[in-house]
# Entry
Amino acid sequence: MNTKKYFILIILMSLSFLILAQKSEIVTTEKEGNIIHFHFNNPNPYPISVLLDFTELKNMTANKQIPFKVVLKANQSREKVITITPKNKNSHSYRYTFKTMNGDCNKKHNEKYAYRLPFEKGSKFRVMQGFFGTFSHQKQHAIDFDMPIGTKIVAAREGIVIQTKDDSNKRGTTKEFAEDGNYIRILHNDGTTASYFHLRKNGVEVKVGDEVEKGQFIGYSGNTGWSTAPHLHFVIYQNSFEKAETVPFLFETSPKKLEEVKKDKFYTAF
Ligand SMILES: [Zn+2]
# Structure
């Protein structure tokens, strides 16, 4: 390779790095004289919401109500501009902060949604622990299904895969192992997220950005992370800019019958 070609290659490589780096920034500003325009970018293959606020806005006004909330579609860039302008010629300054969350911040969990049992048609499993179970669900609306490692898991509800982990083979009976659990997280159209937890190593069969149907095979159960026995931990989170909280949900346990599943009862998927 001659020097000139080599040089051009280096420029191209650094340029593409720069573009990537810019693309990953969620809030960017642009100056037009004394006016500041804010742009919002979502580098993720799923929707997110952003909350922009100012910790300082000295002698400047915004053209939108602040704090400013915006919902960004998957892979959306330079959207929804908010502008701040100096009030007069006196000195002015600003400082901003922002928070993000997965999904649409204006939506709430549809509590009447008929969740499907998250395993294959015809298979039957026992609930080991239900909502606020005394063993480990004291603060959670979560369900544990007793099932052998390698049981096929299907989506309880349609949505977009937003996070997965399946590189862990670690398990323990104390809290320090909580981070070692493999999982799939799926974002629903009401802004909630389902988490399918404790999956086996290499047990994830979907990838981030995939749109999955209700009942679609997504992976294999396991016994990774903070766990005492093989099971599937299933939970729905209401996302927010602060802390995501679990919400109650109903399974369709037989045609048109919606119920909260209970500890020690068996349920058959249909
Ligand atoms: Zn659990």
Q: What stands out?
A: DSSP finds one helix and 23 strands in the chain. Residues 129, 136-137, 142, 144, 233 surround zinc ion (CB under 6 Å).
